[in-house]
């Protein structure tokens, strides 16, 4: 009688222990920690409370073609992330068949020896009767003699595979197998819920990021709008006012008969018209670039011809400051570029060089050709650009135009257009500048062919 009582007591203790384990697993699953932490802790519970020292949890990929090691206990962390094809190895067979597999006395069965070795850490690049994971390296016991692997299924969906190994032949009893199977299905449902929550949280995070990006785009659009109205209301007003003053002077000198003064006024009118023309040109190009309406149509363009045209535009400004232009451009040097965009780029760069040059200054324009590229360097010995300004030269937000040495005004759009147009022409722009020493702008275009 005493023996039966002892057996009943032992059975009761086992049931209580199992209930305690199930409760601990349930509590762990309900925590707000990450899924990886939860599963690591659950495997820790199975080890401390049930003596399962070597366990693996694998999840299927989105295509359900491979299992991926997600958590492990008693094995190296290097095994995390290893992939096993469905149908290969013990865990792969469990995933494919969606049925548990129990192996005992593996070392005594010749047909399982190679499988046991391979799933215990060797590079799995051979075949066996059971099938193995080609090219993977699963963590495992080198002397495994017993293994239990369960499919984790919830709502008819394969959630993962739980694999347990031991170096003891009779480590798993039928009772153990039943309990672990029930526990694995409880885990499956909880894991499925956790994965759904993680997926929803990820979607919320992605949506939040999208909203933040849209907010940033709106802020940039507002900055663009404010800059546009600033240009229309202020920067465009200045050269137009200069024209009004010039026409008043024409009338004044004409009435007084001081006709020799009219040539000076004519120079001012020419300068003002050039400024208005460049300003409107930049405004139109910039507005079109903001709406992606500009189409780049590159062709083979003579660099010398383009630079001569641009220099002619600024003839009066160059003469008024007595600036020397020194060009070293080979007549046969061709660039592959959209001609209108190239003219806009060179106009803006040369305009800045003139604007920030002192009287009697020097501007050099040199070209250097490689097999596939053409580099054009436009350098001046003027006032230079402060480092703080240099770092924001291609940004529009809160941008203020800097007055030239003769108080020439601009829009602050010039270098932004240069950068955009160089990108469209598969080129690049680089700037070096030092206060009171000058500025050098290097433009790199694809090389054209004769």
Write the layout of secondary structure elements.
Elements: H1 2-30, H2 35-50, E1 54-60, E2 66-73, E3 83-85, H3 89-97, E4 101-104, H4 110-118, E5 146-154, E6 157-166, H5 174-235, H6 237-256, H7 262-290, E7 299-302, H8 303-313, H9 315-320, E8 324-328, E9 334-337, H10 339-355, E10 362-369, E11 373-380, H11 387-390, H12 414-424, E12 428-434, E13 438-446
Parallel strand pairs: 8-10
Antiparallel strand pairs: 1-2, 1-6, 2-3, 4-5, 5-6, 7-9, 10-11, 11-13, 12-13
Distance between the termini: 110 Å
**Strand numbers in spatial order across the main sheet:** 3-2-1-6-5-4
Mean pLDDT: 78
Number of helices: 12
Strand content: 15-25%
CATH architectural designation of the largest domain: 2-Layer Sandwich
Number of strands: 13
């Amino acid at each position: 009688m005493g023996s039966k009582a002892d057996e009943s007591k032992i059975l009761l203790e086992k049931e209580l222990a199992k209930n305690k384990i199930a409760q601990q697993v349930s509590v762990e699953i309900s925590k707000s920690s990450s899924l990886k932490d939860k599963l690591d802790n659950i495997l820790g519970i199975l080890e401390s409370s049930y003596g399962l020292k070597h366990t693996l949890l694998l999840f299927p990929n989105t295509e359900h073609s491979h299992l991926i090691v997600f958590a492990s206990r008693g094995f190296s962390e290097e095994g995390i992330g290893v992939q096993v094809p469905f149908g290969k190895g013990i865990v792969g067979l469990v995933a494919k068949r969606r049925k548990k597999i129990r192996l005992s006395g593996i070392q005594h069965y010749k047909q399982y020896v190679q499988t046991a070795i391979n799933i215990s850490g060797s590079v799995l690049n051979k075949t066996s009767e059971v099938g193995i994971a080609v090219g993977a390296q699963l963590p495992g016991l080198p002397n495994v003699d017993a293994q239990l692997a369960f499919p984790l299924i919830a709502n008819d969906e394969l959630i993962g595979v739980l694999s347990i190994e031991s170096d003891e032949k009779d480590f798993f009893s039928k009772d153990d197998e039943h309990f672990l199977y029930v526990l694995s299905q409880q885990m499956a449902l909880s894991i499925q819920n956790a994965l759904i929550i993680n997926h929803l949280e990820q979607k919320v995070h992605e949506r939040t990021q999208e909203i933040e990006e849209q907010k940033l785009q709106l802020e940039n659009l507002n900055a663009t709008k404010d800059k546009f109205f600033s240009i229309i209301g202020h920067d465009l007003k200045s050269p137009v006012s200069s024209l009004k003053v010039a026409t008043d002077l024409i009338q004044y000198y004409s009435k007084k008969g001081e006709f020799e003064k009219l040539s000076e006024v004519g120079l001012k009118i020419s300068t003002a018209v050039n400024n208005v023309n460049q300003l409107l040109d930049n405004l139109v190009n910039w507005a079109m670039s903001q709406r992606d309406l500009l189409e780049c149509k590159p062709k083979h363009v003579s660099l010398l011809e383009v630079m001569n045209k641009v220099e002619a535009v600024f003839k009066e400004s160059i003469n008024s400051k007595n600036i020397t232009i020194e060009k070293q451009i080979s007549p046969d040097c061709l660039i592959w570029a959209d001609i209108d965009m190239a003219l806009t780029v060179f106009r803006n760069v040369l305009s800045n060089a003139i604007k920030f040059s002192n009287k009697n200054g020097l501007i050099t324009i040199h070209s250097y050709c490689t097999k596939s590229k053409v580099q054009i360097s436009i350098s001046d010995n003027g006032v230079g650009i402060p480092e703080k300004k240099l770092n924001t030269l291609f940004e529009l937000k809160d941008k203020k135009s800097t007055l030239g040495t003769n108080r020439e005004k601009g829009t602050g759009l010039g270098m932004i257009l240069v950068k955009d147009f160089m990108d469209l022409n598969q080129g690049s722009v680089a700037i070096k500048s030092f206060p009171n020493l000058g500025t050098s702008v290097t433009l790199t275009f694809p090389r054209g062919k004769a």
